[in-house]
């Protein structure tokens, strides 16, 4: 598929910068951010390098439809390794903000998993992998503390999105 760059939206980069992706212009597409990203191997892989490229090309419609940005597990490994200091995690957050701003009706597919487990991906279902990496079998998050997950869910139930679309979250 050919991309007609004459129709590219040149304002997209500035919008992402304004929403927290300040260092996006430093990215030279080396791919270091993707090399260690646990979400890069997910069922819906997060490829922050690809998303940054889409922004630089001004592919507004394609970026709006891109759900993988919601797969980020917020480990910030990408930021620790980026040789240019781009802060790819912050770019992910900026894209999420941009998507929500561009389409107020947008509901990311990961939202149901966030409500159910407190994470974009169920990190509690991989105890052997975590143990082999020298980590606790269950991370010290709401996955390990069910009472905190219940409080988190109660808080989310007060949000407009869960109140209006409760059926998506298994809420009456």
Brief digest:
With 172 residues, the protein is an all-alpha fold. Helix content is 44%, strand content 0%. The protein is globular.
Structure overview:
The structure is a single chain. By secondary structure, the chain is an all-alpha fold. The protein has 2 domains: 1-106, Fumarate Reductase Iron-sulfur Protein, Chain B, domain 2, CATH 1.10.1060.10; 110-172, no CATH class. The chain has 10 helices and no strands. The protein has helices at 12-18, 32-35, 48-57, 60-64, 77-81, 88-102, 111-117, 127-132, 146-157, 160-164. α1 (12-18) packs across α6. The longest helix is centred in the middle third of the chain and has 15 residues, at 88-102. It starts with 11 loop residues before the first helix and ends in an 8-residue tail after the last helix. The mean pLDDT is 87.
